[in-house]
């Protein structure tokens, strides 16, 4: 198997609310593993999500191309749907995992099986840090790569999937940071100073929960811009 499962118990919601939650698939980034997503998984458990699966991508260092890793996400999503009996799942993915999950949605029929996709600091338009490695996964993440051009060319890339993007303009891993944007997505930005801290910032974690539970995507509003002391 190429993924790790985590079933979490609801502690913060009533049984009726918890039973209405859609199963959630969590996908980590490059050089990460299931432990990286523990704060997110724990937060969803407290919010009443009973069925959460963490995909452990193998290998996790970019030695496999994005399409190969996307196949692992497809396998995990199918397994989660079969185990829970749910027609659709929600996908929350971080960094490289967000691009892997996007490939699953666009190329492996994931858009037929996913209700909502939450991308956290994903390199959707590529990142210059992809040039720091020569392996296939890193090459796929370079700006202008064949894979990225192909995904961007899709006229209706996500079908009926509701898409949300959470990112920081201060990102030093996704360069330029605006590469984390996706056309048509509901979007929030956060003044988080380090890429890995996006998975530990309370505002981000609360926004993930909101994205998965808000009744209508259009009700997911951008957060107010907080200016630094002495700003205009």
Automatic annotation (TrEMBL):
UniProt entry tagged with the keyword Translocase: no
InterPro entries from the UniProt entry: AB_hydrolase_fold
Keywords from the UniProt entry: Hydrolase
Name of the protein: Lipase
Gene3D superfamilies, sorted: alpha/beta hydrolase
Matching PANTHER family: SLL1969 PROTEIN
GO molecular function terms attached to this record: hydrolase activity
Species in which this protein is naturally found: Archangium gephyra
């Amino acid at each position: 198997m190429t993924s790790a499962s985590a079933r979490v118990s609801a502690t913060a919601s009533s049984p009726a609310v918890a039973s209405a939650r859609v199963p959630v698939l969590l996908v980590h980034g490059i050089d990460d593993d299931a432990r990286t997503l523990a704060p997110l998984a724990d937060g969803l458990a407290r919010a009443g999500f009973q069925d959460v699966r963490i995909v452990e991508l193998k290998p996790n260092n970019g030695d496999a191309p994005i399409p190969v890793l996307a196949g692992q996400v497809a396998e995990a999503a199918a397994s989660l749907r079969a185990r829970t009996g749910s027609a659709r799942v929600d996908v929350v993915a971080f960094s490289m995992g967000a691009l892997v999950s996007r490939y699953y949605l666009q190329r492996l029929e994931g858009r037929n099986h996913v209700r909502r996709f939450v991308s956290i600091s994903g390199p959707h338009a590529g990142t210059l840090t992809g040039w720091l490695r020569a392996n296939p996964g890193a090459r796929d993440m370079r700006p202008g790569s064949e894979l990225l051009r192909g995904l961007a060319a899709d006229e209706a890339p996500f079908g009926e999937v509701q898409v949300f993007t959470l990112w920081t303009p201060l990102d030093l891993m996704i360069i330029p940071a605006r590469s984390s944007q996706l056309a048509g997505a509901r979007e929030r930005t956060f003044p988080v100073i380090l890429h890995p801290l996006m998975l530990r910032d309370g505002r981000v974690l609360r926004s993930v929960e909101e994205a998965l539970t808000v009744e209508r995507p259009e009700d997911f509003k951008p957060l107010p811009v907080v200016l630094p002391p002495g700003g205009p």
